Amino acid sequence: MITSPTISLLAKALKDFQADVPKIAKNSTNPFFHSKYASLDDIISAVRAPLAKHGLVVSQIPCGDNRLLTLLIHEQGEYIGDEASTCPAKNDPQGAGSAITYMRRYALSAILGIAAEDDDDGNVANNNHQPHYEPVKATTSPVATSNGMGRPCQSCGANYVPKPGTESFSTICISCYKKSKSAPKPVSIPIPNPNAEYEGDSVNALDF
Question: Which contiguous run of DSSP H or E holds residue 151?
Fold first, then answer.
């Protein structure tokens, strides 16, 4: 975290901002976990006027290597900020852009102290929450495809043919399902044992 030598004016302005900022509507839905969140556009639209009223501005700067610097700056020059980083789902310009937007949304909410996501009690971060798929509604009627009878994926919109036996609850295609299951797994790092050249314990990399 980085700060100016003093932040007393910024702290008071942030306190007054938080008292004035309206509740932000969570109009977007995560298609895999069915959780609600406010989009980046919705957050910016809600906070721009209250920030200006109290002499505050937020600057978010991509720093390369999928890093983002977010600064909260007071009109008198005081500031606080920090960097965030993430790994894009795809290593291409579209993937990098999506990762930057994702970080901007989370970092903006965090530095302003506002809630723009449903609270899942840490379940998604701890891999304790599996995607929830609602039973197929009557409106999701089968449609004819080149491969037979299919239905539209509720995530990407493409027509797909459900796997036999899953017709009553399948709502997304296999590609979207695999993406939802592709969270990074913990990596074990060997720790050398001074008493044996090739023996040793292992530690979960996520413990560091």
Answer: strand 148-152
Residue 112: partners with Cβ closer than 8 Å, 6 or more residues away? 14, 17, 18, 21, 47, 58, 72
What are the structure tokens assigned to 146, written together? 């080149």
Q: Kindly report, residue by residue over 137-176, the tens digit of the pLDDT.
A: 444 445 444 444 577 777 777 777 776 666 556 777 777 7
In order of 52, 73, 140, the CA distances from 137 in angstroms are: 46, 49, 6
Hey, CA dihedral for 164, 169, 173, 177, is it positive or negative?
A: negative
CA atoms within 13 A on the CB side of 32: 15
User: Going edge to edge, which strands form the sheet with 56-64?
Assistant: 2-3, 79-85, 67-74, 56-64
Residue 174 host element (H or E): helix 174-180
Single-letter code of the amino acid located at 184: P
Q: Contacts for 167-176 with beta carbons within 8 Å, 24 or more apart?
A: 167/136, 168/135, 168/136, 169/133, 169/134, 169/135, 169/136, 170/133, 170/136, 171/133, 171/134, 171/136, 171/140, 172/31, 172/133, 176/31, 176/32
| Predicted model pTM | 0.55
Q: Rounded CA gap, 58 and 70, in Å?
A: 7
Tokens read off for 186: 């913990």
CA angle in degrees (0–180, nearest 5) for 34-39-43: 135
